[in-house]
Specification:
With 196 residues, this protein is of the alpha/beta class. Helices cover 24% and strands 16% of the residues. The chain has a five-stranded mixed β-sheet with strand order 4-3-5-6-7, with helices on both faces. The protein has a two-stranded antiparallel sheet with strand order 1-2. Strand 1 and strand 2 form a beta hairpin. It is globular.
Length: 196
């Protein structure tokens, strides 16, 4: 590093490896998905306004005050003699996108962007359209051929809600609490370099 780039060991130019906005918001969705207790599919969503401010986040889970231990986390097997639709998690789980919309606390969502780890189903698409969200960025579209997702795409296309798969610029983001916890508390203040 040249002398111009440092002043008493401090960087004088911006860091070049910062997160791109879309990666940042998708990473927020992925982090939110880690809150989900679903043993199979964890989905996270993040809603962002035109000034790149996070308006709301959500993840898939049961409604407030519905016990995670009393309601089922499995899918009911339809072709079995003891099939019971009330033992299917789909009857109870609120999707990440719906939770994000509900978590917006009544803020207007017109013109916002939704970042989600999984392309939204038809029920979430209805909520997205009704709330005024204008664009969707998603990571996975693994259920694209299922009717509920085909219906979702059809509705979104009909009303002009944009949707595209997000391809991250950065392939990995590591959050390691130990890096911060083990940091010298004086190093950020450069107290070690002061000679008083």
């Amino acid at each position: 590093m040249s002398e111009e780039a440092t002043v008493q060991g401090m960087e004088t130019h911006k860091r070049m490896s910062y997160l791109h906005w879309d990666d940042y918001f998708m990473a927020t969705s992925l982090l939110s998905a880690q809150r989900s207790k679903d043993p199979v599919t964890q989905v996270g969503a993040c809603i962002v306004d035109s000034q790149n401010r996070i308006v709301a986040i959500g993840y898939n889970g049961f409604p407030r005050n519905c016990s995670d231990d009393e309601f089922p986390w499995t899918k009911a097997k339809k072709d079995t003699k003891d099939f019971d639709p009330l033992k299917d998690k789909k009857m109870y789980v609120v999707h990440a996108e719906a939770n994000a919309i509900l978590n917006s606390n009544g803020a207007t969502l017109t013109g916002t962007r939704l970042y989600t780890t999984l392309f939204p189903c038809n029920e979430c698409a209805k909520l997205i359209i009704q709330s005024g969200i204008s664009d969707i960025l998603y990571l996975s579209d693994k259920y694209a051929e299922k009717p509920t997702y085909r219906a979702s795409r059809r509705m979104l296309d009909a009303v002009g809600v944009g949707h595209r798969r997000h391809v991250p610029k950065q392939k990995q983001i590591i959050i390691n609490f130990d890096d911060i916890l083990e940091e010298d508390p004086n190093s950020s203040l450069n107290l070690n370099d002061l000679h008083l």
